[in-house]
Structures are given as C-alpha cells and as structure tokens.
C-alpha cells in the first residue's frame, strides 16, 4: 500500500529525514517510535504532503502510484489520513459542518454527488456513538476551546467518518487519560480491516497495549535504525533508547 | 468650476427656499462658512493621510436630481432584510419613496427628516439635538448646510422597538453622476431599545458620491444596536460620518460590514458623556479589485467607569487598500476606563495594502487601555490541516477567512441579518462550502 524508498526530506535545504525505507501493506499496523527530534512528525507530514517540506531524494508511492508531487488534498482523496498532534481551531465552523465539507469535497474529487443528508446524519450518529462523543460536541466550533483529549477524539471521529485506507496517528496518545485512550484505541481497532493500514507514531509503549502493532520501527536522526515486532516496544519502554545508540556504534 | 464652487453656488440657490425664521438657518449658514473655509480634506491632513478624495471630486455631480426615480420592488427586494418585519425608510436618489417605506408614528416616530424640520411639533427635538453631537469638520459641515432629507427616528422612554428599522438609500443611475447627502437623526429615550440597519446601494454603474451624517443620542440606560452594510458597486463611494452621544448606563454597538464600493470612509465617533457606558465598534472588511476602505474611529471617554470594545477584521485581496485609524481619548476625569482595541488584517495578495494606526491619548491615571494590531498572511499549518482532510486550497482559504471574521460575526444579534451577512461573505470569498455558514 505505502512504499517509502530512500526518502530524504527537510526544510530549507537541511534534511531531517535521511534515507527512510518503509513498506506498509494492507491489514498491517506499524508503530514508529523514537526520541524527541528524531523526525517522527516530519515523516508523517511529508507523507501527508505538507508543502514546506522539500523531498531531496527518494520517493513515496501509495498503491503503486508516486504521490511525491501531489497536493495534500489529493493525497487525502486517495485515502491518506493524518491525525494531527496539534489540531487547528476553526471558530464558527461546527464539527458537523466541517466533516460534511471534507466528505463532500472528497466525493466531488471522485465525481460523486454530495452524500445525502440522511445518510450523512446516520453515519455521524453511528461514529459519534462508537467514540462515545456527545451530540452537543458536534455543534461546537471545530477544536475551539476543546481540551487536549477532546481534540484527539475529534481527530479519530474525523478519521472514522472519512474511512481512509491509510491512517497515520501522530502522537494521538499525548494528552489523553487512560479512559480516553481506551475509547480512542477501541475506535481505531473497530475501523481496522484487512483492506486498510495504520501507522502509529508515539513516544510511549502505552498506546500499543491497545492498538497492537505488527511491526515496530525505531526512528533516530532521520533514519529507521531498528525494526522488530511488538516486543521491541516493551524493550524500549524498559531500557529507553540509549542501548540502541550503543548498538549502532 | 470646481466641485467646491459648484456646491457653494448651489447653497445660495438653496437659501432662497429656506424659511429665514427657522432655527436651522443660522446653523446652515455657519456650516457653509466652515466648508467654504476648509474645503474638502486633503492628504496633507493627518486624518486623511491614506485616503485621497481627489478622483472623487472630478465628476460633474448632480446635486438636486430632477430625473425620474421610479424603483420597482422586485428589483430591490433583495436589499431588504424583511418585506414585512421591519420598519423602512427608503430614499431614492435622495428623495423619500413612500411606496417602498414603512414608517410609523404609533408610539414611536420612524419618519422623515424633511417632516421633522418643517413641522412645529418636532421643533423641540430638533432644537435639542440637531447638530449637537456632530463635529464641525468640513464634510460634516457640508452635509449640515444642505440638510434636507434623511431618517428621523425618535424612540420614547422605556419603548422596546419590536422590529428592526432599515434605512436604505438607493441611487438609480438616472443621473450620470449624483451627489447625495442624507442626514439622519436618531434619538433613543431613557431605557429604550432599538436595532437599526443602514445601507447605501447603487442600482447602476454610474458614479455616486454619498456624504452621509448620522447623529445618534442615547439617553440614560438606552440600548442601541446599529448595523452598517456597505456592499456597493465599484463606482459608488461613501463618506459616512456617524456621531454617537451616550448618556450614563447606555450600551451602543455599531457593526460595519465593509464589503466594497469604490471608496468608503467611515468616520465613526463615540462620545461617552455619563458613567457606566458601554461602546462596541466592530467591523469586517473584505475588499478586492482596487477598492479602498478607511475606518477612522474615535472613542472619547469623557466620564469614568466606562468600557469600549473595538474589533476590526480585514481581508484584502488583489490591489485593494484598507486603512484603520483608531483613536481613543481618555479625559483626565475619566478614571477606571477599560478601553480595548483590536485590529487584525490578512493580506491575500501581494499588491494589497493595509495602513493601520492606533492612537491612544490618555490623560487619566487609573485606566486599562490595550490595543493590538496584526497584519499577516494565511497560517500555513492551518491550511495544511484543512487540506489534509481533503478540502481544496481555495475552500480551505475560505474556511480560514470565515473563521478569521467570525469573532465579529458572532456578535450580530439579528439572526436574519447574520444569515444575510454570512451569504455576502460566502459570495465575496467566491466559494460555496456545501453548507449554510
């Protein structure tokens, strides 16, 4: 589904990612872990198409198509979703209206008509219930005055509505208490199928108790320095990152 | 002959029609002298540094139009907030149109300045209020000298007006160029409440220059909610001079939606004369092409324990120009004042310009005064967030513009008006977002 080959990318001529190789297949869950400043969020942003990052070498393909030159909205239309670490506040636009716009813009790109209102409402109700989101929450302005937990839950709600093929969850666990974490993880698990894939970016192993990864990768200084199974996450939790640094030397 | 000379000779002709015993006669004569002496303001004056009237003074304006001025309801219906649920004072080429209007004398007066000036029963109000809040700058004086028609609104004490009042000035374009000078007087009695919407609308692409003066007097505990909709043709210009005099415990709010016109200058002046006044001045400016809008605000804190809130948002596309000149004066005796001013601007294109100038003159020592001014472009992180959800660049920008203006929009208290302004904004931004904003 997603193939990243020798990816170098960064800001203003300075590469933050220095040769990433990663393949994610349909049905898989990958976790990317690593210390602060290792390039985790940059990788997420580059895959989602943030324009300020420049790709200096390598390429990204999604379902065998090179997406390196596509706009962020075009990547979204193909089924890539990025859950933001810091979602943006949009005063005056309700959660419901925002998601309607996002869904219908995606449909428009596929030459489909707008989703009928009744179908939209049914879907909103279903997904909100799944994530234990209060109906009042949906009429509030997008992210405005939301707590950290509400913002993250709202990100997963949008993901549930957009039904992406590839979801990248960037630090979705930060700011969540254990109950909210369980609800969010439960939502992600329910959306999981053999046809889609998830990349979980996290500092901590905690989230991986609930969203169980097939593969764990350690990112350091812009490269994946170690890959393994979920046991690697436990090892990192226990021993930190220093032993990997030593191993590399 | 210059436009100034033309006006001065027209005044001599006008004088022949005026009753010499009218109390207004001296007021007019003094006013024309001020105008004769000062003339039209030029860029040399500090308050007009960024706005030039030069090109506006060139056309050969008709000052008193005698041409046919019929307007069909079906052609102007869209400019009314409501067909039934508002009082209306409609003027066409400066002349009252009774067919389109809905006036009243039933427990409040919503009628004409011409009637108020000529009928003896209004004389006490005219004598007590007319030209008492207006400053004596040359443009206001010019309007005063020629005062003939406009809205006369008098709300008696304790009256809560149940529906909004619309003041609409149409120009037909039957003259190649027309000069209009509406004069409005609004007196809101003790503890009375009123909502007013004012609009100037050209119905053709001929030149229109309007020099409007509105005086609003809020007696103690009165509540005045005033909305100005400025969404005119690219050949129509407006100089709006509004003066609000607040007695103690009053709340006065003015929202200005400046969405176009060739040149718009808003001189908005608040005078807080009693304690516990609350003044709100808010505006959304969205311009494109070569449009120019200049907001020149004054909040004069004369009495203690008052508040003022200013929030102006501007979006400037293409080669449009905006000016925000916000002055706050706090007099020596006006202690415990809380004055807040905010002006945020987004320049959408490289050729757009904004000149922002806050001016604070504080003579009291126990006051809270703050102002903030920003000029920026779109937040790239916010754009990326929206686009990553599949929303295209143009629509994402529109959503951000909408969010940007929202702090002003959300304080509009007439729901139908809010919907209307929303639609105007959507049209201005040029996208349909697939939902009613």
Automatic annotation (TrEMBL), chain A:
UniProt xrefs under Pfam families = ABC_tran
Q: Does the keyword Transmembrane helix apply?
A: no
Under SUPFAM superfamilies, the record lists: P-loop containing nucleoside triphosphate hydrolases
Q: Which UniProt keywords apply?
A: ATP-binding, Nucleotide-binding
Q: Which SMART domains match?
A: AAA
Q: Which InterPro entries match?
A: AAA+_ATPase (IPR003593), ABC_transporter-like_ATP-bd (IPR003439), FeS-cluster_ATPase_SufC (IPR010230), P-loop_NTPase (IPR027417)
Q: Which GO terms describe its molecular function?
A: ATP binding; ATP hydrolysis activity
Keyword Cytoplasm, does the record have it?
A: no
Domain ABC transporter intervals: 2-246
NCBIfam families from the entry?
sufC
The UniProt entry's sequence similarity note says: Belongs to the ABC transporter superfamily. Ycf16 family.
Q: What is this protein called?
A: Cysteine desulfurase
Query: Per the UniProt entry, what species is this protein from, by scientific name?
Result: Aequorivita aquimaris
Q: Which gene encodes it?
A: sufC
UniProtKB/TrEMBL annotation, chain B:
Q: What InterPro entries does the database record attribute to this sequence?
A: Fe-S_cluster_assembly_SufBD, SUF_FeS_clus_asmbl_SufBD_core, SUF_FeS_clus_asmbl_SufBD_sf, SUF_FeS_clus_asmbl_SufD, SufBD_N
GO terms in the biological process aspect are: iron-sulfur cluster assembly
Spell out the family assignment given in the record's similarity comment: Belongs to the iron-sulfur cluster assembly SufBD family.
The UniProt record lists the SUF system FeS cluster assembly SufBD core domain at 176-404
Q: Which domain of life is it from?
A: Bacteria
Q: Which residues form the SUF system FeS cluster assembly SufBD N-terminal domain?
A: 22-167
The name on file for this protein is Fe-S cluster assembly protein SufD
Q: Which organism is it from?
A: Aequorivita aquimaris
